[in-house]
């Protein structure tokens, strides 16, 4: 019996795994080359487009062009100084800031009414404020105040005249004293302050008639002096009002006369100092006041007989 032939196993070659870096580097290099080629192609295409556009320009029409014959407007040269330097560029800024007007016809009715209301409010804010103001029923409040002050002035003047007549007849002068509360109430109204010192209405002249001495030289009642001077200290009386009314002369009389009481005299002195301060251009700040100084020389002091 013959022996069977021996079968040898076939040896397989080991499969080598691809190294991780080699293939990737090659692929990356291919990608970079492709991107560079595309960029170069795009630049070439753009250059060819520009050349094609320039090739369409007809150079023959520019053969007779002379830059010396260009018509340029000849303007006089402007000297640059500080004033002109500040104006440079302002016109352009104004043009940029101007809004383009809108056509109201294209807007809906509600928007048009709102725009019209906004424009009316803007115009009202731009106008200067006026001192005159009216009620809803159309009554001019300032005119009403002027009429009330004018009526008070006439009544005060008449009361001063009646007191003078009463003094000449030997009767008590009570007309001004009876009107005093009403006069003080009017002088203390802050809403009438401009009309109270108005030289045209000249209510301060009637106040002067209340404060000045009577024909027999007697002074008015103490209440009249005190209350009216207190009210005068609250009013912004200017030079025009002082000249028109002449009340400053009466206040000077109270500062120089010996008949008024000490409190009334001090009030008159404060009024006179306050009224003359703007005229003499003096400050009301006590820290800025300048006081007169004099050097003391004992040689010029009169020797007393006791020590002589």
Automatic annotation (TrEMBL):
Any GO CC annotation of this UniProt entry: nucleus
Top-level lineage group: Eukaryota
PROSITE patterns reported in the protein's UniProt record: TFIIS_N
Keywords: Nucleus, Transcription, Transcription regulation
BP terms from Gene Ontology: poly(A)+ mRNA export from nucleus
Compartments it resides in: Nucleus
Ranges for domain TFIIS N-terminal: 205-282
Biased composition range(s): Acidic residues: 48-71
Chain segments carrying region Disordered: 1-113
Record bears the keyword Transcription: yes
Family, similarity comment: Belongs to the IWS1 family.
PANTHER family linked to this entry: PROTEIN IWS1 HOMOLOG (PTHR46010)
Described purpose of this protein according to its UniProt entry: Transcription factor involved in RNA polymerase II transcription regulation. May function in both SPT15/TBP post-recruitment and recruitment steps of transcription.
Full protein name: TFIIS N-terminal domain-containing protein
UniProt organism field: Aspergillus arachidicola
